[in-house]
Predict the structure of OMEGA-ectatommitoxin(02)-Rm1c.
Amino acid sequence: MKDSYISIVIAYLMVTFILVSSMPIEGEKGELGPHRLPCPPGYENYCFNGKCVHVVAQDEPGKPCYSCICDEFYIGERCGTLDLTNPGYFLKG
């Protein structure tokens, strides 16, 4: 009984992971969503390899929160690191 419960939980987690990982990233299709706005002028180069967004929900008084939506194969706070662990990078033609 315990083994079947564990198998069901593992199957559920795997299906959830597959469904979530296949969802488009918010902002990927030109839609930033209700809590994200384009960054103001002057922040065009804030993200090294990505797009700057103003995350309104994370703002503190007098301190706006800016974040990056990284280009494919880039990771990090400002998209400055090439993710060589992504096998798709080596298959890119």
Q: What stands out?
A: The radius of gyration is 18 Å.
